[in-house]
Description:
Blueprint: H1 16-19, H2 27-44, H3 50-54, H4 56-65, E1 72-75, H5 82-90, H6 125-138, E2 145-150, H7 157-168, E3 174-179, H8 190-197, H9 202-218, H10 223-241, H11 246-249, E4 253-259, H12 263-273, E5 280-285, H13 293-297, H14 328-342, E6 346-350, H15 360-365, E7 370-372, H16 377-389, E8 393-399, H17 400-403, H18 407-413, E9 421-426, H19 443-447, E10 453-456, H20 461-471, E11 478-482, E12 506-509, E13 514-519, H21 522-540, E14 548-552, E15 555-557, H22 561-570, E16 573-581, H23 586-596, E17 602-608, H24 618-624, H25 629-636
Parallel strand pairs: 1-2, 2-3, 3-5, 4-5, 6-7, 6-8, 8-9, 9-11, 10-11, 13-14, 13-16, 16-17
Antiparallel strand pairs: 10-15, 12-14
Helix pairs in contact: 2-4, 4-12, 6-7, 9-10, 14-20, 16-18, 21-25
Amino acid sequence: MVDSDDYKYLRKIDYPVDLRKLKVEELPAVCDELRRDIIEELAQNPGHLASSLGVVELTVALHYVFNTPYDRIVWDVGHQAYGHKILTGRRDLFCTNRKLNGLKPFPHPDESEYDSFCCGHASNSISAALGMAVAAKMKGEDRKVVAVIGDGAMSGGLAFEGINNTASTPNDMLIVLNDNNMSIDRSVGGMRKYLLRLTTNTTYNTIRYRVSQRLLGWGILNEKRRRGLIRFSNSLKSVLSRQKNIFEGMDIRYFGPAEGNDVVELVRILQVIKEMKGPKLLYIHTTKGYGYAPAEEDATIWHAPGKFDPDTGERIKNDDGKPHPPKFQEVFGKTLLELAQQNPKIVGVTPAMPTGCSMNIMMNAMPERVFDVGIAEGHAVTFSGGMAKDGLLPFCNIYSSFMQRAYDNIIHDAATMRLNMVLCLDRAGLVGEDGSTHHGAFDLAFLRPIPNLTIASPYDEPELRRLMYTAQLPDKGVFVIRYPRGRGNTVDWQCELEEIPVGKGRKLKDGRDIAVLSLGPIGVEASKAIAIAELRSLNDHPDAPLHIAQYDMRFLKPLDKDLLHEVGRNFKKVVTVEDGVISGGLGSAVLEFFSDNGYEVEVKRIGIPDKFVMHGTVAELRQICGMDAQSISEVLV
């Protein structure tokens, strides 16, 4: 696409070295072409649009000023890095982004030397960049290191830990803090409000620059004196601007705010500060979705809009006119509101994902009972624990792969006290195009060893409603419910709310030859596999066809021991199916049970293999992992 005559500059830029041959005055045209290319590509191959549009100018300016890849750019959250990919040798491959065997959904060092660090999750850029800056200093390398972090990611605790260490560790790192007043949903919290108040002062900067140049010229600005000068000049700035910001209070030189969608001004600023010694922070202001009116008007929807018409902005929906099952997220959101209307103790908690997890449904109806805590998963769990300790009933909804970041909080601040709270793990299992950093692969395995947890997964949407109802009943303790991204299989999902006995599974189908034990919606694939296997067996062996039983376990913890005793007594071959890593999950629990109780049963485990799974559609990835109906059926016959 970029080979057309419309891309006068972009078609000549294979790598940043080509970009650096241009005049500064030509960079706005480069930005226009880069933005247009991103829009046209994502209109056909969906991905994260608004984030990357907002940082086009910053991307161009960074690669223009810094000698990448020798100089390091560490992105925080790869949603914003599409322009970076196009400028760093992947322009012709960008059409394969997020597709099976194509470009990775987020920057990763395995893909390009320009991708200095993995950045699927938020808030790690400052810590990683500081490590690189310290390494460069220790090795005597004149390598510049830049961390790019947004205002949403700044709400994460790791970002503050990194900044704290940056202030006390000798380094020359530059932090670019991009304030677009958004993460995915609108950013929240005191940091957002604080960033909006930061100002700079022209008189101060002029005086500071002249003093520092004089001292450098006299050769008396060593490290100890430099830090003393920073403290003095920060005090001077406080007087001139009538305020002191948190970064300068930590002896980190602060510059800004700057217009982040003005590439020429960004280049000027970066060229001035790139050679300065010591840690620095440049605060810029950008517009998420900048340069594309529909994305500017509704950045949440256009964060990942799916296919659309690039000229009109009309989003393309695949609607065949037939009724479709709702998304599990929608069922969660509507059921949560229904339960909250009945139970005044229920509150909702989400780390910056009210729209993605559909907690916005309750938020719109009961704003005083829903809390968006920003990108801070550990805090979300402990905050929920505090409310639970004093009598409220939090439904804390966190994507499965992000719940990994709150592991200690679950143990220390919830399970040890047997608090009554519900942890809803959205996007559990294989999630598709977002790839290895976003698959909800590990939650079953890492949660199962924790005492005082109930771990459940619904077979379908009505079961999700029943589990949510059960979880909010008195004295249920820490109740975990995991469910996948996207649509299920049940159109008529609005069942009666009724209790499911904790730790009790159910038999879905009788059989005598093989027992299939499934957990969660992957059981639907298992049901299809059983039908395929039994039909094949009937055709091949009409006199003795296979009869395969299926059990929906419902709960990983506690296991249904009565059900497993029944299976152990009556079957010699068992197949377990789960949408999680094969190491430590349902299959492992079943093997342990049979071994502990003396059953000699052949167990075949089906699940996500012991490796990081690539990106692709869920159907493609299930086939690769042997978790689709056809693959499961081949294990059964």
